[in-house]
Please model this.
Amino acid sequence: MGSLKLTGIRKSFGAVDVLKGIDLEVADGEFVIFVGPSGCGKSTLLRIIAGLEDASDGRVEIDGRDVSAVPPAKRGIAMVFQTYALYPHLTVRDNMALGLKQAGAAKDTIASQIEMASAMLSLEEYLQRRPAELSGGQRQRVAIGRAIVRDPELFLFDEPLSNLDAALRVNTRLEIARLHREIRSTMVYVTHDQVEAMTLADRIVVLNGGIIEQVGSPMELYNKPANRFVAGFIGSPQ
Ligand code: ADP
Ligand code: MG
Model:
C-alpha cells in the first residue's frame, strides 16, 4: 500500500526542460523529502505524481500499478499545498468533508473521519468556522485534516510550512512528524528548507536543474555529500 515508483520522468514546458529523467522508488510508509532550489521542478514533479500534470515522458507507478490513465481522485493520494487551497465560503467541517462527499462516502463515515482528524489536529473547536476566521497555522491544519480524512495511501506535501511564521513552522513540523508516526502512510514532501528535510525525512532526494544529485538518509547526505552542490545545500542555511 502506498509505494511509489518513478521511472524516467521528464517534463518540458515549451523549449524548457524542467525535469530531465527522474528515477526513484519510495517504499510503503517511507517519508521522502525532495529538496532543491526554487524553480528546480519540485512542484512540477509532485503535480505529475498527483496526476494534475502529465509528464512528457516516463512512468508513475503506485503500488506497482501504472497510474497514467488513473484520474487524480482515484490515485489514493491526498495533496497538501503551500497556499492551503481551502474553500472560503465553506466551514472547516465542510472543507474537510468535500473530498469524501465527492468520492461518495457515507454520512457516518464522513462524520467519524472528521472526528478522528479534528481530534488528531486539535481542530474540534473550529469546525463551524470559515477559513477567514482562522490563523494561518489553523488553516494549514485544516488542509492537512482534509488530506487525512480521505485515508490516503500516499500523502504529497508541497512546501506546507512556508507560509507560516517561525514558531508555527516548528509546531506544524512536529505535528506532521507525529502524524507520520501514527498513521504510517507514505509521505512525499517538497521543501527548499534544509532543516525540515534533515529533521523529517527517512531519505532526502536532492534535486537540481531537473536531475537528482543524490539520494540518501539525512546523515548520509550530511556526512558524505556526493558533490559540492549537495554539500552546500545540506550544509549551509540559505
Ligand atoms: P519549484 O517547485 O521547484 O520551485 P516548479 O516545479 O514550480 O519549481 O517550476 C519549475 C520550472 O518550470 C520553473 O522554471 C517554472 O517557471 C516552470 N513551470 C512550472 N509550471 C509551468 C507551466 N505551467 N508553464 C510553463 N512553465 C512552467
Ligand atoms: Mg514549488
Summary: The chain has a mean pLDDT of 93. The beta strands are 4-13, 16-26, 31-35, 57-62, 65-66, 77-80, 154-158, 186-191, 203-208, 211-216. The longest helix spans residues 166-183. Residues 13, 18, 36, 38-44 surround adenosine-5'-diphosphate (ligand 1) (CB under 6 Å).
